[in-house]
């Protein structure tokens, strides 16, 4: 059950800013056979068969002169096919050739997140995010840090993500969640109320507001939050779970529980 919830949080974190960064310019172009396999893989990927596409990217990578680009592309495809363990292997092959490649580092950290290797993911993404300098990268770093129990680090990461993409409600909501984890409940509530005032706000944003209010011992205010199109029974269940999380004393365990509840 924990792995299912962890993957939900990871996937939520990955939604925030879409794809990874563009790869570095390669010196060697693809061979005719590699180009054919890549085009075929892309066509199959567009049809939704991500597993077959990944196998074609793997064949292309084996004969490629551009090992960094090829194995990074393969890792991305394996992530899309739901195989983070193999993606880790592919991204490491790319990094064996170019240890500071931002896209490969971001891919490795993302795969480690999906594989529930949260401490390794935090370590990798701490290096990747400043290289990539995208909202997506800092959001993934913040997700890893939350799951590692580092609320302050997560707050800093989500703050960086917001500075890059200030209009993203998920980024703002994640920042509020990190503030709550750090014990800055007033700041968290202020951030999350701002998010829920947007006409683009969704149920998960209102849930984070309820969670922050509950953590701050404001149970009546949490219960008074009106969540559009959210069944009252589910709301009561969520609030009960939030009160349980509030009783966890150990900071890292509490931070992980908050992150998992926010993703459930």
TrEMBL record:
TPR repeats lie at residues 68-101, 135-168. SUPFAM superfamilies: TPR-like (SSF48452). InterPro entries: CellSynth/LPSAsmb/PSIAsmb, TPR-like_helical_dom_sf, TPR_rpt. Keywords: Repeat, TPR repeat. PANTHER family: TETRATRICOPEPTIDE TPR_2 REPEAT PROTEIN, TPR REPEAT-CONTAINING PROTEIN PA4667. This is Flp pilus assembly protein TadD. It comes from Neorhizobium huautlense.
């Amino acid at each position: 059950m924990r792995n299912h919830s962890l993957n939900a949080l990871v996937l939520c974190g990955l939604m925030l800013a879409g794809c990874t960064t563009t790869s570095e310019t390669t010196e060697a172009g693809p061979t005719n056979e590699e180009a054919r396999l890549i085009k075929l893989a892309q066509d199959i990927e567009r049809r939704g068969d991500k597993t077959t596409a990944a196998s074609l990217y793997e064949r292309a990578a084996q004969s490629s002169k551009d090992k960094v680009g090829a194995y990074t592309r393969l890792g991305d495809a394996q992530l899309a096919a739901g195989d983070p363990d193999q993606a880790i292997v592919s991204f490491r092959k790319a990094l064996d050739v170019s240890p500071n490649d931002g896209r490969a580092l971001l891919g490795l950290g993302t795969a480690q997140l999906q594989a529930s290797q949260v401490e390794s993911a935090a370590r990798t993404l701490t290096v990747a995010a400043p290289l990539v300098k995208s909202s997506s990268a800092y959001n993934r770093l913040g997700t890893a840090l939350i799951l590692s129990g580092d609320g302050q680090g997560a707050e800093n990461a989500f703050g960086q993500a917001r500075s890059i993409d200030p209009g993203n409600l998920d980024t703002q909501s994640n920042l509020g969640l990190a503030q709550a984890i750090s014990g800055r409940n007033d700041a968290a509530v202020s951030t999350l109320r701002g998010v829920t005032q947007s006409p683009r706000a969704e149920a998960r944003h209102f849930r984070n507001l309820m969670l922050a209010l509950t953590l701050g011992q404001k149970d009546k205010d949490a219960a008074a939050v009106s969540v559009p199109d959210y069944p009252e029974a589910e709301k009561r269940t969520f609030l009960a779970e939030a009160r349980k999380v509030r009783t966890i004393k150990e900071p890292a365990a509490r931070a992980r529980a908050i992150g998992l509840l926010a993703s459930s």
